[in-house]
Write a structure and sequence with these properties.
It comes from Pedobacter ginsengiterrae. InterPro entries: NamZ, NamZ_C, NamZ_N. This is DUF1343 domain-containing protein. Helices cover 23% and strands 12% of the residues. The strands form four sheets. The chain has a seven-stranded mixed β-sheet with strand order 7-8-6-3-9-10-11, sandwiched between helices. The chain has a three-stranded antiparallel β-sheet with strand order 12-14-13, with no helix packed on it. Helix 5 packs across helix 6. It is globular.
């Protein structure tokens, strides 16, 4: 365990060398080579919205923290205005005993799947505990000097985004150790979307634990209620939770994240496409990792002559050090300007991109072969069912594929209603 590293909280808000606040995700890359440029120029888009996150409503939860030793599960999305919630609450006199960070680390600068060590924040001296890898659940020792835990992390509404797994592990630890959990809720940018097959338990993994569809249509607070209500926590324990709801929010509202939720979801476009394009992590294609546009461009060298659009992935520290097809020119599709209002209108994951790219591929035998690259996983872990791969190979239509998701998807939609906090 590392005992001291540069782990300053200010790095969460000083995202540029000049120490400015969190960057808007309305980003444009300018230059001769926009796909591979490493210089992001930020343009702030002022949105006329009255949505207030749970974290912003300090008057509702400060009394719950008064005089208590607080543990906080946070990452760079944990902000109040332009400050981290940790900094803000310290200023307000809250005694933060310990910080817990999920995948990508407390600062959010570790690539997907990279081990993050425990550390000490150089600015405050607060211990920061990593909750990723083998140490995914806080131990009794971790919680011994904590009276109450606070969970304040932005989710993006899909089963394979690991922060909901962190939530479950924290809830289980709190229940076992008789600790209360305060959840500061945040909007789901894909809250309108409830789609995909229900996870088959035999494909349970680090990117999918519970029988929910690919896009679950819940906020973190609502999902916590579901975990409790459906008896999904280990040994069917119940966690005592208090949820500070978002104000002036419902699931049909568009919500632009003020801070990227993880290194490779660095634009609003990537966040909105993610429920659909993350499927390409289980396909022998590059899905934009190794560029500044992950999850919005998709291609491979073997598609040359089939598609005109091309780009070359490179190693980018903190995002993708060894992307699939590194330093090779990839040909494929460019979704950076795709009209995401189509997804919102149809309320469906787009699986047609998978169907079309499979049809176009001259290497169909390799399309789903996850053994060809350590950057690719079996498609079943993402989709959550066994038959999707063969359905694509057999040329099944989208309608036929969707029919196989029933009646599970409809049953989930009915069950979900019990746990909604927002209309």
């Amino acid at each position: 365990m590392k005992t001291s590293i540069s782990f300053a909280l200010t790095s969460l808000i000083a995202l540029s060398a000049c120490g400015q606040g969190p960057k808007s995700l309305e980003q444009q890359v300018r230059g001769k080579d926009p796909v591979n440029s490493k210089t992001l120029i930020t343009e702030h888009k002022v949105l006329a919205t009255s949505i207030k996150t749970g974290a912003e409503q300090t008057e509702k939860y400060l009394p719950l923290l008064k005089g208590k030793r607080v543990g906080m599960v946070v990452n760079p999305t944990s902000i109040i205005g332009k400050q981290t919630s940790v900094d803000s609450l310290l200023t307000l006199g809250v005694k933060i005993q310990k910080i817990f960070g999920p995948e990508h680390g407390f600062r959010g600068d570790a690539s997907a799947g990279i081990k993050v060590d425990d550390a000490v924040d150089a600015k405050t001296g607060i211990k920061a505990v990593s909750l990723y890898g083998k140490h995914s659940t806080p131990t009794t020792e971790d919680l011994a000097d904590v009276d109450i835990m606070v969970f304040d992390i932005q989710d993006v509404g899909v089963r394979f985004y690991t922060y909901i797994n962190t939530l479950q592990h924290v809830m289980e630890a709190c229940a076992t150790n008789n600790k209360e959990l305060l959840i500061l809720d945040r909007p789901n940018p894909n809250g309108y979307l409830i789609d995909g097959p229900i996870l088959d338990p035999k494909f349970k993994s680090g990117i999918g634990i519970q029988p929910i569809p690919m896009s679950h249509g819940l906020t973190i607070g609502e999902y916590a209620q579901m975990l409790n209500g459906e008896g999904w926590l280990k040994d069917k324990v119940k966690c005592k939770i208090t949820i500070i709801k978002n104000a002036n929010y419902n699931h049909d509202m568009e919500y632009t994240l003020p801070v990227k939720p993880s290194p490779n979801l660095n634009t609003q476009q990537s966040i909105l496409l993610y429920p659909s394009t993350c499927l390409f992590e289980g396909i022998y294609l590059n899905h934009g990792r190794g560029t500044q546009f992950p999850f919005t461009i998709i291609g491979a060298p073997y598609l040359k002559g089939i598609y005109k659009f091309s780009y070359t992935p490179t190693g980018i520290k903190g995002m993708a050090e060894t992307p699939i097809f590194k330093d090779q020119e990839c040909y494929g599709i460019d979704l950076r300007k795709y009209d995401t209002s189509i997804l919102r209108k149809e309320k469906k994951i787009n699986i047609d991109w998978v169907i079309q790219l499979y049809k176009a591929s001259p290497k169909k035998e390799d399309f789903f072969n996850s053994k060809l690259s350590n950057q690719t996983m079996p498609i079943e872990r993402l989709v959550g069912v066994a038959d999707f791969r063969q359905q694509i190979i057999d040329g099944k239509s989208e309608k036929e594929i969707r029919a196989s998701w029933e009646p599970g998807l409809s049953a989930y939609k009915t069950m979900r209603k019990k746990y909604l906090l927002y209309n």
